[in-house]
Amino acid sequence: MSNWQELESKYFLRTGRRLPVTLVRGQGTRVWDDEGKEYLDFIDGIAVCSLGHCHPVVVNAITEQARTLMHVSNLFYTVPQVQLAELPARNSCLQRAYFVNSGTEANEAAIKLARRYGKLHRDGAYEIISALNSFHGRSLAMVAATGQPKYQAPYTPLPEGFVNVPYNDVDAIKKATGKKTCGILLEPVEGEGGVIVPAPDYLKRVRAWCDKHNILLILDEVQTGIGRTGSLFAYQRMGAEPDIMTLAKGMGGGFPIGAVLAKERAAVFQPGDHGSTFGGNPLATATAYAVVKHIIEQRIPERAREMGEYLLAGLRKLKAKYPRITDARGMGLLTAIEFDAPLAEAVTLAALREGLIVNNVRPDALRLAPALTVSREEIDQALAVLDKVIKAVAAQPVPPAPAH
Ligand code: PLP
To answer: How far apart are CA 307 and CA 383, in angstroms?
Structure first.
């Protein structure tokens, strides 16, 4: 058998660290490595394979569309793209959709739309207020929007027009708002930042501020959307409608696709203002159409809410048992536990050895985001592994905090 990890170190342009496992197959909530070891996957491709690995709905949609028509360009109308666009229009507060290939691209398109709106309806305003500890993607503009110095510092100078303020702080948004502000970009829950759930009235208050000043509220639901947080979109549980919303991750059930959605009043692109070669091609949109339709019809968000509550209750029990766990939090099946020290990597590696995949989203925080189809039994299994490894890791001396 090839040593894939050695070959990778020779040929791959490295941008991040990997766990020491080569995955070759997946089915439901399980994946297998190249030595045949089985893992319970509680990170789900980072909240992507919403129906689990290789779900028949996803596989059949890809197979059928691949045989029919994969790509023709956006010079033409294509049927799956229009079908997919109709789903959010019928199931959210946003009437118009444009499709791209990733969350980053969706956010780029959202910012361009907001700037277009600023030019037309707010005296040329172009500035976007976004949050510290957020994550919006890795393009230069999205790094500027992402309020995390570790992602920004290596790439300065960054595009101008972004102001980062503390999350969950409406007054900070108010103070940062000026004549140049055209939009406020927020995650309903900060996912990469460590699953930070804001105060229940946070988005409502930001919404009211936006209404008062004719500013667009842009919600980045790349991680929280498509059922992950226990409703089709997180904003529906938070009582504040966005003017623009972005999606990706879970939307294609594993197939790459992103979307920017807009209310009619914010849908100000004119022909020629934006475009993408691959964005919304028949293969991607047919797959996402099948996935999102299945999620809506089978009421999977409700299931995710129920399973999420069950998982969170289990995490809270662990917190009660281990003083080193200082917090257990989440919304739907986007959950985390926080430690009093940088223990998350050690727990992740120990869990991996025990056949459970979780994610050290921060040095001191562990993220769990299994497929929306996860069962109670699988949650029980994952909690049992965590119990075992946290017991062992918590008994060890605390490792030093990593550089970042
Ligand atoms: N926005 C949020 C909230 C995300 O969590 C992510 C990825 O983790 C992105 C944007 C970037 O998406 P992508 O990696 O598909 O470009």
So the answer is: 13
pTM higher than 0.70: yes
- Active-site annotation holds for 37: no
Domains of the chain: 4-54+300-394 (3.90.1150.10), 56-297 (3.40.640.10)
pLDDT digits (tens, 9 = 90+) for 106-151: 999 999 999 999 999 999 999 999 999 999 999 999 999 999 999 9
CA distance 404 to 396: 21
Enter the tokens of residue 241.
């409608």
Closest approach atom of ligand 1 to CA 107: 10
Going from the Cα of 393 to the center of ligand 1, the distance in angstroms, rounded, reads: 30
Atom of ligand 1 nearest to the CA of 46: 8
Q: In the annotation, is 249 catalytic? A: yes
Per-residue buried b or exposed e for 107-143, using 16+ beta carbons within 10 Å of the residue's own CB: bbbbbebbbbbbeeebeebbbbbbbbbbbbbebebbb
Select which of 41, 220, 243, 364 is catalytic: 220
